[in-house]
Structures are given as C-alpha cells and as structure tokens.
Design a protein that fits this description.
Elements (H helix, E strand, L loop, with lengths): L1 E6 L6 H13 L9 E6 L4 E4 L2 E4 L5 H5 L2 E4 L13 H10 L3 E4 L3 H7 L7 E2 L3 H10 L4 E2 L5 E3 L3 E4 L2 H16 L1 H10 L28 H9 L7 H8 L3 H12 L3 H19 L4 H7 L5 H12 L3 H8 L5
Parallel strand pairs: 1-2, 1-5, 5-6, 6-10, 7-8
Antiparallel strand pairs: 3-4, 9-10
Helix pairs in contact: 1-6, 1-7, 6-7, 11-12, 11-13, 12-13
Length: about 325
C-alpha cells in the first residue's frame, strides 16, 4: 500500500488539507482494495485550520515512512519553516520520496531549496511573489500543476484535485484515476490551464499621468483596426515619443496594451452574451475569427468556446 503523508502546519487552509485526503481516499483498485494509506502529520498535535482545529495523529517521523508527501498551503506564510520540517523534507527527498505542494504550499516547498532550478507553479495571485522570493525557481503561473517527476506543484485549491488525480493515474493507471475522479465529481482532465482564471488587468498609468485620456480613448475604440501612427496622431505626438512615454507610464507599448484591451473586451462578451465567436471577434477588434482564437488562446490558455463554457453567466 502506498502511504501519503499530508503535512499540516499551523494555519493550514482547510480545502488544501481535505483535497488530498479525499481524492486519495476515493481511489480503489479493480478488486476493490484501497491503494493508498493517508496520514495527516504535523510538528504539533493540533494545528489551526481557519474556523476549526485539526488534530494530527502523526508527527514528522511519518514523513520518513511516506511514499508521497503533500504540502498544503497556509493562510499566513511563516517567516521560516518550523524546526525540523525542512530537514525532514530534504531527508525524504534524498530517499526518493515524491513531494507535492498545493497552492501557496509552494512557498513552503521552495523554502527547503528542493525546487531550485526547477519549474513550479502556485496560485496565480501569488506567483509574482514566489518568483521574487525564490529567483532560482522558474515560476509558471499559467498551468494547473507542474510535474517534475519527483517534485510536483499545483495552483489553487481546485487544481490540487487535478494534481492528485494525475498522481493516481501515474501510480495505478487511468481506470483507477477515472474512478477517483467520478467519486470526486471531477473530470479526469480539465481543458486549459490556470491562465483562464487570471484577471488580466490592463497595465495602469500612474494617477494623473498624461496618458490617462489616451488610455480611456483606446479602451473605448479597441474594436477599431488602429495603427501606431493613428494612436500617435490622436495623442498629438510622434510614434517614437508615444512609444517612449507609453513604456515610461505603463511598462508596455501602445499596441501591446491595445491587444490586452481587446482580450478583456472579448472575455466580457463571452461571459455576458450569446454572440457567436465571429461576431465577438469583430466587436473586440480582431482582424478575423482565426486571429481572435489564436490570440485568445495565447493569452488566456483556452479557446473562446471553452472559456464561455466555464464562465458564462447563467440566465436567471
């Protein structure tokens, strides 16, 4: 039997804790046997988990006996790992134990140094901070999970289910993973990655910046096939001067800003209307439905139909 140790630290996020316990707990072999033994362990007997307290039956010694270790996220990241945690995780890694993190549990994982030189992910909202604190880790905010073989990381709490199902399939095959997915009321695979959930805000200009009127005009007219020369004429400056001021005030170029505004408008139309993709492509200023689909998938990580299916507002 494969032993999964879920490491609960103080302030553990409840869903991050329950996701692996439930998903691995639902797994069944064809003959009905349970392939996993799940153990919750901690440096302390009790840990806070939001509105309730969790009692951990096992201590850090359980990490040495585990085949897989799961690191859930915590509500407030500690300045340093509790005594003995990093050492226990490094020792387990040296023995070949598989280690996976959920959501901001990637910060705990990265603090051990085990992710140095590897690609990893975390919740998109925290990805920039993870990259800043741990520059040796290549952070990808656009995917649901990253599998480096021995080490895995997942995005938000729901992505933990995707990662756990992926590990079950690796361990015991698609049939066992599909059963666990059905019992968890989850698809075995979800289309697209984490990018479709990111709020793609337009790069803002500082308050009172000279480009503010131009940015409002661009957002209102992003459906037009504007050229850099036309935008510069509207701003009453040369293209070269416009590019320089745009980078100074928004960190990007006028055309890149315009592309992002078009994607934002397309997302809104997909969420709130039944307009066909061809019409939305025109309304959002894309030259053709094909160009729209390609740009949308590049930025959002899924196609327009998939995005609409996931985010379309239900009619009351």
């Amino acid at each position: 039997m494969h032993t999964v140790a879920v490491l609960a630290l103080d302030g553990v996020i409840p869903f991050d804790l329950s996701a692996p316990v439930d998903t691995f707990g639902w797994a069944r072999l064809p003959d009905g046997r349970e392939p996993y033994r799940v153990r919750v362990c901690s440096p302390w007997e009790e840990v806070g988990a939001g509105a309730f307290t969790v009692r951990a039956p096992y201590g850090l010694e359980a990490l040495a006996e585990a085949d897989t270790i799961i690191l859930p996220g915590v509500a407030e990241l500690p300045e340093e790992l509790p005594p003995g945690v990093a050492e226990a995780l490094r020792a387990a890694a040296a023995d070949g134990t598989r280690i996976a993190s959920i959501c901001v549990g990637a910060f705990l994982f990265a603090a051990t140094g085990l992710l140095d030189g590897l690609r990893a992910t975390t919740h998109w909202f925290a990805a920039g901070r993870l990259a800043e604190l741990y520059p040796r880790v290549t952070v990808d905010p656009n995917v649901l999970y990253v599998d480096n073989g021995q080490f895995l990381t997942s995005a938000g709490a729901a992505a933990a289910l995707d990662m756990c199902l992926h590990m079950i399939r690796r361990d015991f095959g698609s049939a066992v993973a599909a059963h666990a997915a059905r019992m968890s009321v989850m698809p075995l695979e979800r289309e697209g990655g984490q990018a479709q959930f990111i709020v793609h805000d337009l790069p803002p200009a500082p308050a009172g910046a000279t480009l503010e009127p131009l940015l409002r005009w661009l957002e209102d007219h992003c459906d037009r096939d504007l050229t850099l020369e036309e935008i510069a004429a509207k701003a009453e400056m040369s293209s070269r001067t416009l590019n320089r001021r745009f980078r100074d005030q928004t960190g990007t170029t006028p055309l890149q800003w315009l592309h992002r505004a078009r994607v934002r408008r397309a997302q809104y139309l997909l969420e709130t209307t039944d307009h066909p993709v061809e019409r939305i492509a025109a309304q959002a200023g894309f030259g053709s439905p094909t160009a729209f689909r390609e740009r949308f998938r590049k930025v959002v990580g899924t196609n327009p139909q998939g995005y609409r299916k996931a985010f379309r507002e239900k009619a009351s």
